[in-house]
């Protein structure tokens, strides 16, 4: 996976470690929210898919009924029914308007039909002399077919929109899960390792400094002791009138006794 063995190029400091941890917390929360959004969109997607399947299954029967009703109307009223219908209709009685539904932040277009009545009864009187009942039945059947087509168009549009939104959301979820979070985790591990190494280096440096100071103190103490001993030997040599070696032998012979007893 990309990002599993990669990390960000940063300066390993305590401040940067805090920044990386905050970014990891944000990435984790974002991943959880996007995962929930993807699940909600998937549930809505499957619901719409079931409705589309049901609508398409009923579409065949509806269109067949509409086609048969048109054939019956032509058979009863004759071919002149087309001109009668066209002359009686001034405006569309069935219209479509668009709305939007919000599903987990995704706006889905929705089409709905409504009957716009202008108060005219011309359409109801069409075929009054011949085949009026069949014409009205044909009109009702075609209205039902149009309503089903509008519903199917709304479902298909929402289906495509949801499909694209789910793909985009899943890409973001996968990017956070497989690239962003592993990189941040690797970066945090790297910074912690570097900080631990710096701490060990500081500890080793302090130990070396303490050892150096201890050796310096011991050297100074040895020098002071040697100087005191030389002063004492010179004092003994002057008092006894002997050489330094003889004074040294006298001092060794005195041992743990008080050196002043030599005098």
Automatic annotation (TrEMBL):
Q: Which Gene3D superfamilies match?
A: 1.10.287.3240
- Return the InterPro entries for the record: V_ATPase_D
Q: Which UniProt keywords apply?
A: Ion transport, Transport
The UniProt record lists the keyword Transport: yes
- On whether Ion transport is a keyword of this UniProt record, the answer is yes
What name is this protein filed under?
Answer: Vacuolar ATP synthase subunit D
- Family recorded in the similarity comment: Belongs to the V-ATPase D subunit family.
Give TM regions. none
Q: Which GO terms describe its molecular function?
A: proton-transporting ATPase activity, rotational mechanism
